[in-house]
Design brief:
Helices cover 33% and strands 26% of the residues. By secondary structure, it is α/β, with parallel strands linked by helices. The longest helix is centred in the N-terminal third of the chain and has 16 residues.
Length: 402
């Protein structure tokens, strides 16, 4: 039995015409002899009647004190509705599909509302469906605890459902359909020279996803890498090849695969120059901030100084903690982080020097930088973001791998 998994995001289901195009792609796969497990997101975006954001906005308005459990129970309805509508669309085309929710499979999660992790996923229901049907429609983004309580997998959670199903079904491949041509080398809204990366290694895609690329959820990449699952990002509205994510990348001229950015960053500098037992105080700072649920980034540690960044949403909590502990600190607002990711940077000399030269020549100030073997990130002023990314993107053809 040849099996593939296809996932369609909200923009691929937002209109009657979009759903017809998605159904055509499903039918084409059936005609190629595949059994198709189709994971669906909720339809559209905020403002559309059954989108996840709209459903959550409604419950906040009608039940301001709703618990996290009640919010998750509300949020899963959008994917279920998508399955019902797509089932009717496929039937018009002569295809009958079975429909399954996260409870039917079941998708068992760890019970963290709003961001649960999958502990196990059943496929017996789908394999049994394939005895009668060519298509199984699965509501993405959702699961349940061992006690049967509904949970959601966080933003982009349908990607995770698709990857987990692909691994469990031993699918030939997983196709993630969205409204872009594939994984871009930079944000096309910022630089017109951005282009589709035809292939990426799991490590590269994981790094890009964690640094802000919204095309795939990081957990879906982790699952794909663990099970050596071929993952494709494609455009619902075209027949382009998209981006293949696997452990084999096509040869590339540049060691950099793409540029990703995050905005709304606040930089903190904590001064321990007048403090005794600095190591203990530093450990206490990291532990306390983690207990507050604050994630730190761009961390630089010196003998008596610590620099770190937080998202703007965590600014007030972070500042409140530092003030209450009477620590001496400074802060800088209005920052962005640009990350240059690429497996080819490992063992390629001069990449950081080239990045710094381009930014300096463009009049962009680098406040700090951090790096790993496949990632170099620079902290800059948010107002310089567009010129910085455009300038850096032009660097790609000039950096050649040995």
């Amino acid at each position: 039995m040849k099996i593939i998994v296809q996932k369609f995001g909200g923009t691929s289901l937002a209109s009657k015409e979009a759903r017809r195009i998605a159904a055509d792609k499903i039918k084409a796969s059936c005609l190629e002899g595949y059994k198709v497990a189709v994971v669906l997101s909720a339809m559209g975006r905020r403002g559309d009647e059954f989108s996840t954001d709209t459903l959550l906005d409604n419950i906040r308005e009608k039940l301001p004190g709703a618990s996290l459990a009640e919010r998750d129970l509300t949020a899963i309805c959008g994917e279920m509705y998508s399955c019902a509508v797509m089932s009717a669309e496929l039937e018009k085309m002569g295809l009958k599909a079975d429909v399954a929710t996260g409870f039917d499979l079941p998708v068992i999660t760890d019970g963290v509302y709003g961001g649960a992790r999958i502990k196990s996923i059943g496929v017996a229901y789908i394999l049994n469906s394939f005895k009668t049907y060519d298509v199984a429609l699965i509501a993405g983004f959702q699961g349940m605890t061992l006690k049967g309580l509904a949970t959601t997998l966080g933003r982009g959670g349908s990607d995770t459902t698709a990857a987990a199903l692909g691994a469990a079904l031993k699918a030939e491949k997983v196709e993630i359909y969205t409204d872009v041509e594939g994984v871009m080398t930079a944000d096309p809204k910022i630089t017109a020279s951005a282009r589709v990366a035809p292939s990426l290694d799991y490590c590269e895609m994981g790094e890009m996803a964690s640094e802000g690329a919204k095309v795939l959820h990081t957990r879906s990449v982790e699952i794909a890498e663990k099970h050596k699952l071929r993952l494709f990002v494609k455009n619902t509205f075209s027949d382009a090849g998209g981006t293949e994510i696997s452990n084999v990348s096509l040869p590339r001229r540049s060691p950099i695969s793409g540029f990703i950015h995050k905005t709304g960053i606040v930089d903190f500098f904590v001064d321990y120059s007048l403090v005794n037992n600095v190591p203990k105080r530093q450990r206490g700072l990291f532990r306390a901030l983690s207990e507050f649920g604050i994630s730190l980034d761009v961390i630089n540690i010196h003998k008596r100084k610590i620099y770190f960044t937080v998202d703007a949403k965590d600014y007030e909590k972070t500042k409140s903690f530092l003030v209450n502990t009477a620590m001496k600190f400074c802060e800088r607002h209005g920052l962005a982080k640009i990350s240059c990711a690429g497996l080819g940077m490992k063992g390629t000399p001069g990449v950081m020097a080239a990045i710094a030269r381009v930014l300096w020549n463009s009049g962009v100030k680098i406040y700090r930088s951090v790096d790993s073997f496949i990632n170099i990130s620079c902290l800059i002023d948010e107002k310089d973001l567009s010129s910085a990314i455009s300038s850096l993107h032009s660097l790609m053809p000039d950096l050649k791998r040995d």
